[in-house]
Design brief:
By secondary structure, this protein is of the alpha/beta class. 49% of the residues lie in helices and 17% in strands.
Amino acid sequence: MKIKTLGLIHTSGTLIPVFQQLCQQHLPGVNVFNIVDDSLVKNIIARNGEVTPSIYKRVADYVASAEDSGADMVLVTCSSIGAAIEAAAQTAKVPVLRVDQPMADLAIQSGRRIGVIATLATTLNPTSDLVRRRAEIAGKQVEITSKLCEGAFDALMSGDTARHDERVKAALKDLSAQVDAILLAQASMARVVDTLTAEEKTVPIIASPPNAIKHIAAHYSL
């Protein structure tokens, strides 16, 4: 299938320029539009990570809205709502991709010991669960180590990107000594990897935004 229009559904407006640049680079000629609702993650946090029936419905509604807006494919860029994304994909009329699936597939090819790092506790379990399920499909065994960057998400939401990046960078260095590859559970952490020196990148650090867009380019591009 070759797509002409890609609909992106975000739970943070800060990701729009990240994906805009990636789409321009890897999906030239594909029309891209964005739907943003930052209340989804706030609702999940308020319910201690629970993806409620209301969130399932809202995600499905946003996917349907993207279809109505002409999307040939939908990419949802938030890992915390992964279960709702997969449910919405079952009834959608176009392909629906959760942003962390391609990076999970890449990680299990990189080694047995997989690290998952997140700034939100609500994302650790969904991402780890996805890695386990994708490993099972691939017939591989993995050992997952999760690490939460305490305070990083609050710093990002308050506009203190420097503090966010410092917390993430420190956690990456610590986790690198324990695993064969690291997954970034939040797309917002991807830019921190670019600030690491070659000596600090002792294991592959895999971010969801570039791998999701490259996956779409390889399988669905014009």
